[in-house]
Amino acid sequence: MPGLAHATAPPIDVVRLRDAVRGTILTPGDDGDDAAREVFNAAVDRRPAAIVRAAGADDVAALLALAREAGTGVAVRGGGHSFAGHGVADGAVVLDLRAMAAVEIDPDARVGVARGAATAGQYTAAAGRHGLATGFGDTPEVGVAGITLGGGIGYLSRRHGLTVDHLLDAEVVTPDGAVRTVDAEREPDLFWALRGGGGNAGVVTRLRFRLLPVDRVLGGMLVLPLSAELLAAFVEIATAAPEALTTIARAVPAPPVPFIPPEHHGRPILLVALVHDGDPAEGERAVAPIRALAEPIADLVRPMAYREMFEGPGGPERPAVAMRTAFADALDAEAIVEGVRTAPTPFAAAEVRALGGAIARVPADATAFAHRDAPLMVSIAAMSMDPATADVAALEASVEARAAAAGLAGRPGYVNYLGAAQPTAAAYPPATLARLAAVKRRYDPGNVLRFNHNVAPAA
Ligand SMILES: Cc1cc2nc3c(=O)[nH]c(=O)nc-3n(C[C@H](O)[C@H](O)[C@H](O)COP(=O)(O)OP(=O)(O)OC[C@H]3O[C@@H](n4cnc5c(N)ncnc54)[C@H](O)[C@@H]3O)c2cc1C
User: Fold this and answer.
1) Which ligand 1 atom sits nearest the alpha carbon of residue 172?
2) Using one digit for the tens of pLDDT, what is the confidence trace for 213-242?
3) Going by CATH, does the domain composed of 216-417 fall within 3.40.462.20?
4) Residues near ligand 1 (Cβ within 6 A)
5) Is the sign of the CA dihedral 341, 330, 162, 226 positive or negative?
6) Which CATH architecture has domain 5-99?
7) Can you name the residues that pair with 76 across neighbouring β-strands?
């Protein structure tokens, strides 16, 4: 995992910082400092100079102004689920937004608000109580702001589009210390950049979304025995399915969980998580061909409230992870399955998401998420559940080799899934990257917000 560039940040004046902000500040050795610098990816173990737990947008503004003056980089910590570990950086100041986390749902206006580091799970639970939803990803612990800044691909994407397609406006603090409210009319370039540009232009303190009447769905998980033939057939069905059906499929060794019979544990399976948002009978018809691919090892698909998809933990608590992401037109199922079966790392996974539908109906230049026409997204992951013994270099080598074997190396990828070793340029077509660089020059010319999939300010 990277860390080299992070070691060069000039120090900030902590005494002035304490005077400038209302929130608490942790420095190395303080009680709670070690827990506060932890992020989801346990391969990341970085030591910031200070962690600022902002109490409001005014704190964010004060910190950014001081950091800009000092030339110090600020790492923004929301839900902490960046695969590259961007929520913490060596020698930098971490701006921790967790104390500002809040969700407000207005069922009459059908508007949802997420503040600070509010998570997808918190928002989905609150909105779900009114039979409403905004689509995020598949994991409750992920930060709403973090996922939105990259685009937001989840269970409702084929039917309703990306998270960014439902963003009404945002409160953003830019590194000049200004607190701005931006939308399609007010500072449209900044609003464009927030919808996929990955938090390069400012710190988002509040997001307002349109809520959709998504309540009862056909949802859950189907566990199938994995083979290359089955995976290839699944991809054909998933990409041609009615767009009310969104699937997220993972080729993995079966985990030892109660709903999978013990004789399958450790054997390769295809774990298909799905949501059909539409007529229940049509949902059953859409899922039938997937069920028919093989005798399911487990069938947990049932009518449910959409919010139930976000209940319970979203996966392993703090694994060490290496990741590669690619958008693809087709899948080399043979190579994907072979990679999962033979990878030497403790846990090898490949995730396949069928896209299209409402995602593809938005013009590519409407938002900084530009890969609208990709039919598939493939992510290659290697994990170790025991960070203490994790060989991070081996995890990286595994995903590199498996992505290359599947013909995915060097392909464009999703910014929110970029691995530490993938360049930012992989996430954006050249015209999008140039426009992001121009927005960056306008709002963050000193690159204060540099601990992200960084877009350098245009020259
Ligand atoms: C287990 C897991 C499941 C996932 N599932 C999905 C999925 O289904 N769909 C999907 O689209 N993505 C998914 N992701 C990717 C996820 O959306 C990104 O990693 C996202 O950036 C995480 O946001 P965060 O706030 O949790 O993380 P953080 O690490 O806190 O932040 C991630 C990045 O966003 C920046 N950032 C965060 N908050 C702000 C803010 N308020 N203002 C400015 N910059 C900010 C940070 O600086 C950092 O660069 C998943 C990730 C994990 C680990």
Assistant:
1) 42
2) 999 999 999 999 999 999 999 999 999 999
3) yes
4) 39-40, 76-83, 86-87, 97, 137-139, 142-143, 145-147, 149-150, 152-154, 199, 203-204, 314-315, 416, 452
5) negative
6) 2-Layer Sandwich (3.30)
7) 95
